[in-house]
Amino acid sequence: MKRYIIGADIGTQSIKVHLYDEELKLAGAVSKEQYVDTPRPMWMTQRASSWWSLLTESIRELLLKTGISGDQVSAFGCCAHMHGAVPVRLDGSVVQDDIQLYSDKRGGYLADKIAEEMTDELYHISANMPTSSWHGIKIKWLKENEPDVYEKADKFLTPKDFINFKMTGVACTDYSEAAGVFAMDQNTGEWSDMLLGVLDIDKEKLPHIQKAYDIVGTVSEQAASETGLSTKTAVITGGGDMLSMLYVSGMHKKGTVVDITGTGGIICGYTKLPVMDRRIMNLRHVLDGWVPFGNIDAAGVSFRFLRDNLCKKERDEARGRGIDDYAYLCALAEKMPAGASGLYFLPYLMGERTMGSADSRGCYIGMSMDKEIGHFIRALLEGVALEFKRTLDVFEGSGNSIDAVYHSGGGAKGDLWNQIKADIYEKPIYTLQADEGGVLGVSLMAAYAVGIISDLVEGADAVVKVKKVYEPNSGNFPVYREMKDVFSELHDTLQAPFRHMARVQEKML
User: Fold this and answer.
1) Which of 55, 139, 315, 363 is the most buried (most CB within 10 A)?
2) ∠ CA 295-298-301 to the nearest 5 degrees?
């Protein structure tokens, strides 16, 4: 009997479920849209029950569409947006359905308080500074603001670990997610009593940690009845969406750098040990080793915000002519000179993590009467790249050499943004032929867990194929180098006003 693998990716905007055969060829796919709720400024939530219902519906639809039986599915793997804190009871029920997403900044004040007292000892245990995104900060916020939820929860699980819990009844996590709790000792790979004491959360409310490609268990009878899978289908731990995507985006060998620009954006390296610089975040990879990274919570979504608010006329013109919205907007931006004639965009519509404050906000700076809509579009594309360039400078400053950058996600589809990044990073940009993202990465791990593939690195080698190379234009280096200095100066100067603005905004609610 031919064997298959099912991989799932719980994203902020959609849930994707893919079916792969033994040759790791895509045999079928289903995608369901979902949405983010914003009940208050800087709060971002989704319902855990919706993830499960959309996932089970998608798996049933996929099996029906392809004619594959649940008995033929050897393994299931899931990745998801990271860090959300799902409070569950051991009977499988959810204590609270509205879950803080990674981009939810309500715990920023708690992270700031911990940061003020962050000792070198704590930092060398965590390899990270506290930020509102971390899973442990979200649990701490619940304990302080909704203590009943905290007390009733037997375990706190990340989104993909919640899916695995619903699939198997087993509560566990992997090292990529554990490193983003702000409670794991980076030296031992175990929960740290010292960090848990700082967070003031109970160790027994956290799951045990194992490798992303380890098997959690098999599908329970209840989950089998809801999904159509077999009770013999193995379920792997899986990894965070970011690390699962990186695994099949060129980051399966140390020394590579990957830029993933989707709804949010990350730029990261692959190293043996964490990069110990307080401006950088570090997560364990789904393979061995560490992924130091910087991020923008509103990267691609900033472009969508611009399209839907400042570029409605241009968007409608594109649709009326049957042209892709973003391709049309990029054509307008391409008419503008490098540097957008001195217009700057700070891409902090959802605040910042460790490179700045959760109170940071998006800005256009340098507006004048000569500016056209193309300037605004180009400034946005350049602003995202300039923010990532700050992180690349930290990587190189810590002794890591960067020869090229792999670029994936929705932002990698257009020529202009790739070329802008090549010019600002001063590195070649490689885009990939297959860009299936984390769902492919977690499917490869599931295939490895059940013996369909024998080596994780060789498995990635088979699917990572370069589509196009964008060589940097040295003629643009001088203007972008000066712009990067101005950009950094604007960022640093505005930190105090951003904090003041946030306090004023709180009084308006």
Assistant:
1) 139
2) 135
